[in-house]
Amino acid sequence: MINTALKIVLGLAGTLFLFNGVRWLVVPGEIAPAVGLPVAEGLGLSTLVGDLASFFMAMGSFVLIALITERRTWYYPPIMMLTITALGRIVAWLLHDATLAVGPIRVEVVVALLLFFASRRLPKEA
After folding, report:
1. Tens of pLDDT along 50-66?
2. 3-23: average pLDDT
3. CA 14-19-25 angle, 5° bins
4. CA–CA distance, 45 with 72 (Å, rounded to integer)
């Protein structure tokens, strides 16, 4: 029962990450303001679209590949990505006068912990 619930929650998270990556590719003008970013132009827009689409699409792919293949190794990249993102937000707050993004940090930490728990519980292979 717990394994099934964990697979469903992580499957939804992986799908949402993929969906957000596609949104960065297709409608960056909608998703940028939704996450507190100004809509950039020129090289800045290229950087936003390229970097954020790749971030979300890679993370979503890693989560779904982990669930499909049941191989522990695939859980580690999204755990690292989410953890580094949360730490980066904290550093931005501490050193660069950014707003402390408590909500996003909470989501990143919870999903990273769920992925870690899943990496210990779900895989049939190392």
Report:
1. 999 999 999 999 999 99
2. 97
3. 135
4. 35
Domain assignment present for residue 34? The answer is yes
The closest alpha carbon to 40, from 99, 49, 92, 104, belongs to 49
* Amino acid present at 115: L
Domain count, the chain: 1
What pLDDT does residue 126 have? 61
Residue 117 has pLDDT above 70, yes or no: yes
Spatial contact of 119 and 72, defined as CB atoms under 8 Å apart: yes
Structure tokens at 13: 């998270």
Q: Which of 36, 50, 49, 41 is nearest to 92 (CA)?
A: 36
Is 65 a domain residue?
Answer: yes
| DSSP designation for 125 | B
Question: Could you tell me the residue range of the domain that residue 74 belongs to?
Answer: 2-121
Structure-token match 């895989």, residue found: 123
Q: Is pLDDT of 33 > 80? A: yes
What does pTM read for this prediction?
Answer: 0.92
3-class secondary structure, 101: coil
The answer to whether residue 126 sits within a structural domain is no
